[in-house]
Write a structure and sequence with these properties.
This is Fumarylacetoacetate hydrolase family protein. InterPro entries: Fumarylacetoacetase-like_C, Fumarylacetoacetase_C_sf, HPA_isomer/decarb_N. Keywords: Hydrolase, Metal-binding. One of its GO terms (molecular function) is hydrolase activity. Residues 43-243 form the Fumarylacetoacetase-like C-terminal domain. The protein is mainly β. It has a single domain (7-248), classed as Alpha-Beta Complex (Fumarylacetoacetate hydrolase, domain 2), CATH 3.90.850.10. The chain is 11% helix and 33% strand. Strands 1, 2, 3, 4, 5, 6, 8, 9, 10, 13 and 14 form an 11-stranded mixed sheet that branches. β15 and β16 form a beta hairpin. The longest helix has 9 residues, at 22-30. The radius of gyration is 17 Å and the shape is globular.
Amino acid sequence: MFVLADHRIHLEGEPLARDIDAQSVGVLLANGAACRPPVSGAVYGTLLNDRAALDALGDAVHAAPYKAPPKAPVLYVKPRNTFAGHRAHIVVPDDDEGVQIGGSLGIVIGRTACRVSADNALEHVAGYTVVADLCVPHESVYRPSVRFRARDGFCVMGPALVARRHVADPDALNIAIDVEGQAQFNASTATSIRSVARLIADVTDFMTLSPGDVLTMGVPHGAPVAHAGDAISIAIGDMPPLRFSMKAQEGAER
């Protein structure tokens, strides 16, 4: 079991994460603290859980080989090499293409969840964190590409894990993504096809989620694209905002 009383933050350079109050987290972040991800379990991304993202596919969802919209969550894994924390510098593989900045609510599992019902799914949640689910822009939907989604640093998490009791309604949180030089991108968890509880129930119907695992709620449609040199901030609800920046690949022309 993974129990969280308040906030959890893992400062860069410290061997263990701290469980502290919101005010202390605010002071540390205001002083420029860099952080590791607040959790280290498996991370599962979710595709097509945003109503606009599914609608944007139009008739393509009825074409072969699938011939219908997905009946179960479409998941992919963000492996450990993708994990990065608050104030990380993420390499852009190809600056002409850039990197899509997907801001997503990270649902952190508190106790083993296997075939749980939607009615009691939230009892299995320890808390929530901000996840920047990054990818190289591409068209593949049903078959998420490892090459595009599993680059080093392509899953930025944090800066803090916020206990479930501090998030009154995870299905009604504003999402704001600021990419330097671009208009703010705004979305909401309210546009999700599956609520947090429904998503947990549907996923655990076919796989077990363990304490410390992270299940993302999914990336809103139309997420912005960033390039080398850009600074990014992602805020979800009242949780501490996640900040990081993009940098050019070594040897790449600027």
